[in-house]
Please model this.
Amino acid sequence: MKGFRLHRGWREPNGLVTNHVTLERIIKAASACDAMGVALAEGDFVLDVDINLVWLIDDQGTLVWSLRLDDENTAPSP
Model:
């Protein structure tokens, strides 16, 4: 099993990632594909009003998956 880290944050329209909020979710999986499936099942972590970006990195810090959410909003909720 390999270790993957699931992160979440807010991506501004200019591409800057702010409000980097992560609970350092560690996902143990055999492959990046399996880790993506586990990440998508983390609904309460992935779907939050104050984030619009989630990403998964492997144990060497390489981005293996990302998902942009809610492109219509340009700011986190007040």
